[in-house]
Amino acid sequence: MWDWRTLTVGLVLVAVSAVALWRHWVSYRREIEPGAAEEEDRAFQRRRLRRRMQTSGLIGLVGLLIAAGDRWIWNQGPAAATAYWLFVLLIIAWIILLALGDMAATQVYQGSALARLRAKQRALSEEAERLRQQILSEAAGRGNGHGRPPTHGTPRSTD
């Protein structure tokens, strides 16, 4: 006879797994739209999808194993039950390792992405400063009749 508590836990894990698998896929499809990300970003997204789909799928498998195992494994004897539940615990340990690996990979990727953004920001700031200096030097060469380069709408302090 089915124990409703074990069956409920197993089915909840399967349902959570199904929702997570669907959400990972939807998120992946949205993040890799053409032109939305660079190749390095798309490669990371593919690897992340693979890790997360594996983790979510294994959660569903654990749910099935909990529900089914509780139904029939106890009739197989203590040695079989022990081996079965150790196998389930091994899968749970693998899920934990995958989750930790995903967290570490995401942290490394985000650090790298932040470094790339900061480098782009520096390059853009340097380009903006170069253009500002160019405009000021051109304006100084033409003059504006007041002996000072134009401020182009930026307030200047009067000394």
Describe this structure in words.
This protein has helices spanning 4-31, 39-72, 78-142. By secondary structure, the chain is mainly alpha-helical. The protein has one domain (4-142). Helix 2 (39-72) packs antiparallel against helix 3 (78-142). The radius of gyration is 30 Å and the shape is rod-shaped. The mean pLDDT is 85.
Task: Quickly describe the structure.
This protein is mostly helical and 159 residues long.
Q: How many separate domains?
A: 1
Written as H for each helix and E for each strand, in order along the chain, the element string is: HHH
Number of strands: 0
Gyration radius (Cα, Å) is 30 Å
- Main sheet characteristics: none
| Beta-strand fraction estimate | under 5%
Number of helices: 3
Shape: rod-shaped
Look at the helices and sheets and give the structural class: mainly alpha
Mean pLDDT: 85
End-to-end Cα distance: 91 Å
State the helicity in percent bands. over 70%
* Poorly predicted segments: none
Layout of helices and strands, plus pairs?
Elements: H1 4-31, H2 39-72, H3 78-142
Note the main attributes of this structure:
159 residues; mainly alpha; 3 helices; 80% helix
